[in-house]
Amino acid sequence: MTHGPSARSALALLPVVGIPAFLAIANQTMVSVALPEIGAHLGQLRRLPWLVMGYMMALTVAGPLYGVLGDTYGRARMLQSALLVYIAGSLACAAAGDMTILALGRVVQGLGGGGLMALAQALIADAVPPRERGRAQGYIAMISVLASTSGPLLGGVMIETLGWRSLFLVTIPLALLAMLLLHRRRIPRGPARQTRFDFAGFFALLALVLGGTSAIELASEPGHMAWVIPGALVGLAGFVALFPTQRRAHNPLFPPDLFAIPAVTRAALMAAFHGAALVSLVTMVPLFHAILRADSALETAMSMLAMTATLGIAGFTTGNLVTATGRTAIYPSVSLLVAIAAIGFLAVKGSDLGRTPLMAIYLIIGLSIGTVMTVVNITIQQEAPAVHRGRAAGAITFFRSVGAVAGTSLSSSVLFLLAPVRSGTGSGALLTGATGVDPQTLDAWRTAFMAGFGTIACFVIGTWLMALTNPSRRID
Predict the structure, then answer these.
(1) Nearest-angstrom CA–CA distance, 93 and 88
(2) Within 13 A of 295's CA, how many CA atoms are on the CB side?
(3) What's the distance, CA 262 to chain centroid?
(4) Positive or negative, the Cα torsion across 324, 150, 332, 276?
(5) How crowded is residue 257: how many other Cβ atoms within 10 Å of its Cβ?
(6) Equal CATH topology for 1-196 and 255-476
(7) According to the per-residue pLDDT averaged within each range, which of 1-10, 139-148, 150-159 is highest?
(8) pLDDT of res. 465
């Protein structure tokens, strides 16, 4: 079978945009699988969720800024810069000797990663003719599924054979290869756009997210209560400032007339709750396997594969069902009820299940919550006015990321409030097979994980309620 010129053009761009996209997506699940191993070596078990949240917060903050800088200085040049920042973060993570340095390295990685996916997508518009962009976007979607599916397995294998630092070192040659390919391929610079970025709204939202998340996280740590009120006040100030800034802005992040549409608002909240549930699961499940089941990183990765692999399958199937029937919100409205029951069962019985039944639960969860984002994206495409459609899609990504950060912060706070690391029990003992850990401590962790998974189930309930009440039920 031969490929025509359009296929060759899209394929030629694939390594240039595909490697950055793969790095941005696979990084999250690879590092999540490594959390128990990192905690065993560096201690500070309470700080492990910050390795996920720090990356996600930086990713969320950096994405819109790279968009503005890409319009001003060229997207290819800014993608090179994002790759350099990502490499610097990877080096810092690989060399980290304590949890604080590792968390800061993850923030730097996120500041680079924020540009990888956004700029890779935008480069398609610069380098590929309009008739070929669908094919190129299809390749990116294929890479996204591959990255999210293979991330846990790759992470588990590398941790078992080379140690957790290899997860950060392996990204460096890939990023350098992407920079070389980007340098060698001449990509035309897209037309400059004279649009003003909504910095006031951006910083108000930043204050809301960082202040609120910090307050939630610090509330679960003894000795840090003095910082909770200032964090909460910063978050409240950001919330209060956000609405007037959006009304006054010439180019608002969240146009008021767009979010006056009930279907759009509910779709955005669906994305936020979905991000909270999914990233909280990906963060909590490896700790659950290490502490209560004494599983290795590879065993954990193999179990998680049942969930991560089925997310893409569910999204693809949901899209085909929508095309065939014209119905949209019915699919998450039904499937999320199954997810709520499955997560509830995991909370109560998960530590007692054999590997096969547990993987079956993960498979059910993946198939159930995997229906959400396809319906969210279809709803936005149909309900958002054409003039706001691009911004609406960006807002959905933003809401999902903010939900992921806030949800992970809340679920991990619940976990560690109920099962603090006791002075007589080191992180290494807990995270490397629970050898020598007294039964009372394990019982406390069992209760804590029950509450943690219960919190995640509440996020899924929120997603279900938004799907159930969304007035957009069919496509035209």
Answers:
(1) 9
(2) 24
(3) 25
(4) negative
(5) 11
(6) yes
(7) 150-159
(8) 97
Measured N-to-C along each axis, helices 297-325 and 330-349 cross at an angle, to the nearest 10 degrees, of: 160
**pLDDT tens-digit profile of 344-371?**
999 999 888 899 999 999 999 999 999 9
Which residue, chain included where needed, has tokens 């979905």?
274
Q: Which two tokens stand for residue 450?
A: 């029950």
Task: Residue 295: name the closest of 95, 457, 466, 160 by CA.
Answer: 160
Could you tell me the fold of the domain covering 255-476? Growth Hormone; Chain: A; (1.20.1250)
Look-up: residue for tokens 């006056």?
260
The mean per-residue pLDDT over the stretch 2-31 comes to 70
Give the chain's end-to-end CA distance (angstroms, integer): 37
Sign of the dihedral defined by the CA atoms of residues 44, 45, 46, 50, in that order: positive
3 state SS for the chain: CCCCHHHHHHHHHHHHHHHHHHHHHHHHHHHHHHHHHHHHHHCCHHHHHHHHHHHHHHHHHHHHHHHHHHHHHCHHHHHHHHHHHHHHHHHHHHHCCCHHHHHHHHHHHHHHHHHHHHHHHHHHHHHCCHHHHHHHHHHHHHHHHHHHHHHHHHHHHHHHHHCCCHHHHCHHHHHHHHHHHHHHCCCCCCCCCCCCCCHHHHHHHHHHHHHHHHHHHHHCCCCCHHHHHHHHHHHHHHHHHHHHHHHHCCCCCCCHHHHCCHHHHHHHHHHHHHHHHHHHHHHHHHHHHHHHCCCCHHHHHHHHHHHHHHHHHHHHHHHHHHHHHCECCHHHHHHHHHHHHHHHHHHHHHHHCCHHHHHHHHHHHHHHHCCHHHHHHHHHHHHCCHHHHHHHHHHHHHHHHHHHHHHHHHHHHHHHHHCCCCCCCCHHHHHCCCCCCCHHHHHHHHHHHHHHHHHHHHHHHHHHHHHHHCCCCECC
Q: What is the C-alpha to C-alpha distance for residues 222 and 220, in angstroms, rounded to an integer?
A: 7
Residues 439-460 have pLDDT tens digits of 787 888 899 999 999 999 999 9
CA dihedral 468→470→473→475, nearest 10 degrees, is -140
- Assigned token pair, 31: 């590092």
Question: Which superfamily does CATH assign the domain made up of 1-196 to?
Answer: MFS general substrate transporter like domains (1.20.1250.20)
Give residue 191's pLDDT. Answer: 53
Domain ranges of the chain: 1-196, 198-250, 255-476
Q: Kindly report the backbone phi and psi dihedral angles of residue 189, in degrees, each rounded to the nearest multiple of 5, phi listed first.
A: -80, 130
Q: What is the mean pLDDT of the chain?
A: 83
Report the alpha-carbon distance of residue 476 to residue 465 in Å, rounded.
Answer: 23
